[in-house]
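Let us practice reading a record.
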Amino acid sequence: MRLITAVALTAIPACPALATDWSHKDWRVSVTVHETTEDRHLTCRASTGGDGDPVLALSVYSGDVGPPYSYPMAQVIERAPRGYGTAMQQNQPVDFLFDFDRGFAITATASAGFDSEGIATAETQLRPQDHLPMLQAMKQGRWVEIWAGNDMLYEASLSGFTAAYGKMMDACGFDLALPPR
C-alpha cells in the first residue's frame, strides 16, 4: 500500500497545476477546464486591469500549438458603461509604449462593436509577427502605456507579468521560456 501511495504522489508534480485562480503582484491567472467525452483541454489566461479600466490580457488553449511556433497574443479589451462608446474605435491604431525605451513601440489595430447585451466593446489585434516582441517587451518593462490615437487609454503595470506568464504557460502545458529580445 505504501508503495502505491509513493508512486501516486511522485506522479502528481508531473501534472500541470489546475488551480482556477492565482495572482502575483498586479497580474492574475485563471484556468478554465473544457471537457468533452473525447478530450479535456484548458484555457489559461493572464491579465491585469479591469474594475472599470481596460484589461491587458493574453491567453492560450492547451489544444493549440504553442512556442516556439506560436506565442500568445497580448491584447487590450475595453468595455464601456451602458450607453457610452469605447475610447478605441474600429480600425484605429493603438500604440504600446514601454518604460525602458520610449522610442520602441508596437502598434495594434482596434476592432470595435457591441456585445449581445448592446454594450460597446473594443479589443486590439496584433500582427502575428508582433506577438513575440510584445511578450519580450512586457517581460523587460515595468509598465506599458496604451495609446488610442492622441489619448492615453491605460497605463498597465507589468509588475508580476513574468511570473503570471510562466504560470499561465505551465498550467496549459507549454514552454514558459521566451527567447531574449
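A brief commentary: The helical segments are 2-11, 131-140, 161-171.
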